[in-house]
Model the fold of this input.
Amino acid sequence: MYKIRSMTGFANVQTQFDNNELICEIRSLNSRYLEISVKLPKPLIDLENHIRDLIRQHITRGKVFCNINFTSLSSELQNLKINPGTVQIYKNLLEQIKNAANLDTTISLDHLLFFKDIISFEEEILIDEELNQKIKKTVLKALQLFNRMREEEGENLTKDIQIRLDKINALTNEISEYAHQNPRIEFEKLYKRLLSLIEEEKTNKERLEQELAIISDRVDITEEVVRMKSHLQLFQENLAKGSPIGKKLNFILQEMHRETNTMSNKSTMVEISHRVVAIKEEIEKLREQIQNIE
Done:
């Protein structure tokens, strides 16, 4: 069964091997297109394109952030390095300060330790095929978890969308019943109004009725109702196909909104107008939900 996916999601996967820890975090936000941001430790930067390709295979739309951290769980003291050049620069600077202040003080190690950047942490990462495979598997696992979480959210979205579609369908059926009466009611209303303004014996009733028929035909919304039902059916069919479908559903909603606008402009019955307003409200709520669908 095909599933709807939310465009937003989060996943975090940790893998430990050979006294190392690899963490892959993936999160996403709504976006009209697929935007990918990958953050890697410098020694792993060559894997960026491959990770982007993996993401494209599992995600089609959204603003995606993928962060990968690699940490050695062994003693970190072995990775602490002294920066001799930086030490010498600070020593010279302290000498200048001492001379400028006419101080008779010996520069000590304590003085130099105030400058934190004289010691740096350099994590050595040995890039080999084994590590490459570990990273790829970790990213793939994170993507799978990420999509499962998005599908769970998508299931909740689908339930809400279905409720609103059922409401629109019911309101459209009610409008369809009134739509058959709308032209006749408009014709009779216009006819009585004209007869009250002119002398009936001087009226060409046949010509008058022809003109009124043309006018009343302009308020016939039968075609709009038929198209609305067609759009609803198309929406349901595409919803059943699963993601990626967000863009197409949004387009169908635009067509549905266009039909309701036409109904609103043409209809003169309060019963129809009230239901058209209710449909517009549901369409707007659907539009908000569709923005979250991949």
